[in-house]
Design goal:
The chain is 4% helix and 32% strand. The chain is mainly β. Strand 8 and strand 9 form a beta hairpin.
Length: 178
C-alpha cells in the first residue's frame, strides 16, 4: 500500500475516504505519494501505484510504475473506455496490439507509447537478462477496474513463459510477473 506523505487538512464538511485519500469536495489539496509495495495485476505484471482513486481520491487519472521481468509477458488485455500513455524508463519492451494482435511496437527507454481505449494489447520483455520499467498514465483513476482480460488472444503470440495453449504460465521461484 502506498504511504501518503502529506495529508492536507480536511475542510468542514469534506468527506475523507477510509485509509486517507483526498477529500472528495472543497479542499484542492495537493498530495505527495511515495511508492509502497507492488501488487500483481490481473494482467500478470507487477505495479507500484502512485496516483489513483484509491491512493489520493483521483477522479480522472491513474499513474503507476510497471516492471516486466526478463523474459516475461503480460496476459492479453484491454482497458475498456480508457486511454493509456506509457513512458519507458529502462529496458526495451515489445507490444503486440490490435484486434488480433496483428501490429507490433518496440518501446525503448525515452519512448512514449499510446494505447487507445478498447485496443487489445500484449506487452512483453524480450530480454533474457534486463527488466523493463515504465511509467503508465491512464484515464481510469481506479487501479484495475477497466482491465478486461482477453485469453482468446494469448495463444496468438506465445512467449517464453507460455503454456501449450499460449496462455502465460505461473512464474518460477526466481521470476515474478506472468
Amino acid at each position: 500500500m502506498n504511504r501518503i506523505a502529506h495529508e492536507p487538512p480536511a475542510a468542514p464538511g469534506d468527506a475523507v475516504p477510509p485509509g486517507g485519500g483526498a477529500p472528495r469536495s472543497g479542499s484542492p489539496g495537493c498530495r505527495l505519494v511515495r511508492a509502497g509495495a507492488t501488487f500483481t495485476g490481473k494482467q500478470g505484471l507487477d505495479y507500484a501505484v502512485g496516483i489513483s482513486a484509491e491512493s489520493v481520491g483521483a477522479r480522472g487519472i491513474h499513474l503507476q510504475l510497471v516492471t516486466i521481468p526478463p523474459g516475461a509477458r503480460a496476459r492479453a488485455h484491454l482497458h475498456a473506455d480508457h486511454e493509456t500513455a506509457i513512458y519507458a524508463l529502462g529496458g526495451t519492451s515489445g507490444c503486440w496490439y490490435g484486434e488480433r494482435l496483428e501490429h507490433h511496437a518496440t518501446v525503448a527507454p525515452g519512448d512514449f507509447f499510446y494505447i487507445p481505449a478498447g485496443v487489445p494489447h500484449l506487452p512483453y520483455n524480450p530480454s533474457p537478462t534486463e527488466p523493463c520499467t515504465a511509467v503508465i498514465a491512464r484515464t481510469d483513476p481506479n487501479e484495475q477496474e477497466s482491465v478486461v482480460l482477453r485469453p482468446d488472444l494469448d495463444a496468438l503470440r506465445p512467449g517464453p513463459e507460455s503454456g501449450p495453449d499460449g496462455a502465460p504460465t505461473a512464474p518460477g521461484p526466481d521470476r515474478r510477473g506472468c
